[in-house]
Amino acid sequence: MTPSLVISTAIKVMFIWFAINLSVSKGERYGIGYLGPYNYTPRAGLFGAIDIAGAVTLAVAEINNSSTLLPNDQLEFHYRDTKCDAKSSLGATVALVNQFDVIAFIGPACSPGCQSAGLLASEWNLPMISYVSTSPAMSDHKIYNTFARTNGPLSQQADAFYAIMKNFGWQHFSLICNYVENRFIWTKLCELIIEKARESNSQVTFATARDYDLITATEEDIELLLTELNQNSR
Questions:
Q1: At what angle do helices 184-197 and 154-168 cross, to 10 degrees?
Q2: Which of 156, 124, 151 has its CA nearest to residue 3?
Q3: Of 201, 209, 205, residue with least CA distance to 225
Q4: C-alpha span between 78 and 64 (Å, rounded)
Q5: How far is CA 49 from the centre of its chain?
Q6: What is the pTM of this model?
Q7: In sequence order, what are the residues at sequence separation of 6 or more whose Cβ sits closer than 8 angstroms to the Cβ of residue 47?
Q8: Is 35 helix (H, G, I), strand (E, B) or coil?
Q9: In whole angstroms, what is the distance from residue 191 CA to residue 193 CA?
Q10: What are phi and psi of 96, to 5 degrees?
C-alpha cells in the first residue's frame, strides 16, 4: 500500500467517524478544521498539506456523495497552516473556530502543535484527531480528553517492532536510519529501537545500523545496501 493511499484511507476513516457521531441530520453544513504544515519540511516528513490535501478533498466528497452517511447534510473542510510549531498551531486553531465555527479538527501533524492545540480542543470540548503525532504527552487523556491519533507514541512503536521480531523468531536485525534529512520522528525511532536492543534482557541482537541518504541514492547503491544488511539480519 502506497503512502498516499494510507494517508487517504486514514483521513477518510476520520471524516466518517465525525459523520457518524454528528447529531441527527437537519439539512445543515458542518465545518471540519484541517491543521497541518503547508509545505514539505524535514520535521513534517511527508505529511505537509501540499502533499495530502487532495486526500482530504476526496474523503469529504465521498462522504457528501453517500446516501447513508449524513444524507441530508454536507461536510466541508477549512485549512490553516500550523508550520509545525506550537504557537502557529494555537493561532490556526483559534482562527478556524472564530472564522468557520468548525466542530472538529484533523491534525495538527506535529507533536508540538498537538500539545498546544489539543489543550484548546479539550477546553472547547471539540474532537481532534492527529494523523502523525508521536509524543507520549498526548497519551494523558485526563488533559487531552478529546484528542485521538492514528499514530501511537514512538515508545510503543519500538515495542511493536520487537513483538514482530519475537512472533517470527528473528534474532538479528539491521536498521537504515536516514539521519541525513534530519527527520525527527524516524531518527528518534531508530534510537529507541537500538537502545532497547542493548538492554540486558533483550533476546535479539542489533546487527547493523546504516545512515543513508535514500533520496540521492541510485538503484545500485540501494541494492548494495540491502545485500549488506541481509547478510547480517535475522
A1: 50
A2: 151
A3: 209
A4: 15
A5: 12
A6: 0.69
A7: 7, 36, 37, 109, 131, 132
A8: strand
A9: 6
A10: -65, -40
- Pairing label, strands 29-36, 128-130: unpaired
CA proximity to 158, closest of 130, 110, 211, 197: 197
Burial label for 128, CB within 10 Å (0-12, 13-18, 19+), is buried
At 68-114, the pLDDT tens digits run: 777 788 888 899 999 888 999 999 999 999 999 999 998 888 888 99
Spatial distance between the Cα atoms of 173 and 234, rounded to a whole number of angstroms: 6
195 residue type, one letter: E
Residue 49: burial class (beta carbons within 10 Å; 0-12, 13-18, 19+): buried
Give the C-alpha separation, 231 to 234, whole Å.
Answer: 9
136 secondary structure, DSSP code = G
Instruction: Identify whether the C-beta of residue 163 lies closer than 8 Å to the C-beta of residue 203.
Output: no
Q: Are 128 and 148 in contact (CB under 8 A)?
A: yes
H or E, element range at 178: none
